[in-house]
Design a protein that fits this description.
- The protein has 8 helices and 5 strands; from the N terminus they run H-E-H-H-E-H-H-E-E-E-H-H-H.
- It has 2 domains: 85 residues, no CATH class; 68 residues.
- A hairpin with a 4-residue loop joins strand 4 and strand 5.
- The chain starts with a helix and ends with a helix.
- It has a 5-stranded mixed β-sheet.
- The protein is α/β, with parallel strands linked by helices.
Length: 169
C-alpha cells in the first residue's frame, strides 16, 4: 500500500477475490499507515470489504471521527463486518447486524508487538472453524492476551495448542 506496485497488487488481489466470490478481509495494520496512506486505503476499501480489522485509533483516523461510537457508525458504511481492537479493554465486533463486546483476558503485558496480528489470525481461525463472531472474538482475545505476555510477536506451536485447549474447555 505504501508503494504503487503494492497498491496495484492489493487492488488486483481484491478484484480476483470478488470475481471468484471469495470474501476479503483487510487489516489496517498501523495508525501511521492509515494516517499517511489514507487515500490509498480508501481506494482499497472502496466498495467495501467483507471483514475489516483495526484498532480504535485507526478506526477514528480512517473515519475522521473523534469517538469510537462515531467511528463504528461510519465503518458500517464501508465494511460489511468489522472488528475494532481496544487493547487492554478487549474488542468490539460488528457481525453485520449486531455489535458484540469482547471482554479482555487479564495479562501482564510486556510487549504488544504482534497483538493485533494475533487477534486477527485467531479471529479468522475461529470463523473458519465454525465459531460464531462472539466465539471467534473470545478466542482472539485469549490468544492476543498470551502474545503480549512475552517478548516478540510469535507463539510456539505447543503454546497455540494450549490456548485452543483452554478455549475449548
Amino acid at each position: 500500500m505504501a508503494s504503487p506496485k503494492g497498491l496495484d497488487a492489493l487492488k488486483g488481489a481484491k478484484k480476483i477475490a470478488e470475481k471468484n466470490k471469495i470474501e476479503v478481509a483487510l487489516t489496517f495494520s498501523d495508525p501511521s499507515m492509515v494516517k499517511y496512506f489514507s487515500k490509498q486505503m480508501q481506494e482499497v476499501v472502496g466498495a467495501s470489504v467483507d471483514l475489516l480489522f483495526c484498532n480504535n485509533e485507526e478506526a477514528m483516523i480512517f473515519t475522521g471521527t473523534e469517538t469510537l461510537i462515531d467511528a463504528r457508525e461510519k465503518l458500517k458504511q464501508i465494511a460489511k463486518r468489522f472488528v475494532v481492537t481496544l487493547g487492554a479493554n478487549g474488542a468490539l465486533v460488528y457481525d453485520g447486524d449486531t455489535f458484540i463486546s469482547i471482554e479482555p483476558y487479564p495479562a501482564n503485558a510486556v510487549d504488544t508487538n504482534g497483538a493485533g496480528d494475533m487477534f486477527a489470525g485467531a479471529f479468522l481461525y475461529g470463523i473458519t472453524h465454525r465459531h460464531s463472531y462472539a466465539g471467534a472474538g473470545k478466542l482472539a482475545s485469549l490468544a492476543s492476551s498470551h502474545v503480549v505476555r512475552q517478548w516478540g510477536p510469535r507463539l510456539m506451536r505447543d503454546h497455540t495448542e494450549k490456548i485452543l485447549k483452554e478455549f475449548n474447555s
